[in-house]
């Protein structure tokens, strides 16, 4: 099952849409380039098991 969620780029502050594969787990982290400034964000994805609400925190990739 795949869904989409929004996150804010840690570099430029623009919002991005990312695809999340829920079968990969309730907590995931991966790196994705911002669609606006193309710099790499580390995404920490937290999925609520009951509501499937998604929270995403972003960090700079060193
Ligand atoms: Zn950006």
How is the topology of this model organized?
Elements: E1 2-8, E2 15-21, E3 27-33, E4 40-47, E5 54-60
Antiparallel strand pairs: 1-2, 3-4, 4-5
Residues 9, 11-12, 14, 34, 36-37, 39 line the site of zinc ion (ZN).
Structural features:
62 residues; three-stranded antiparallel β-sheet; two-stranded antiparallel ribbon; 5 strands; 58% strand; binds zinc ion
How would you describe this protein?
The structure is a single chain. The protein has 62 residues and is mainly beta. The protein has one domain. The chain has no helices and five strands. It has strands at residues 2-8, 15-21, 27-33, 40-47, 54-60. The strands form two sheets. It has a three-stranded antiparallel sheet, with no helix packed on it. A two-stranded antiparallel ribbon has the order 1-2. The mean pLDDT is 96. The structure holds zinc ion. Zinc ion (ZN) binds next to loops.
């Amino acid at each position: 099952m795949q869904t989409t969620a929004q996150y804010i780029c840690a570099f430029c502050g623009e919002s991005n849409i990312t695809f999340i594969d829920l079968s990969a787990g309730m907590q995931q982290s991966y790196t994705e380039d911002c669609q606006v400034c193309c710099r790499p964000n580390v995404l920490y994805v937290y999925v609520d098991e009951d509501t499937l609400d998604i929270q995403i925190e972003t960090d700079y990739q060193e």
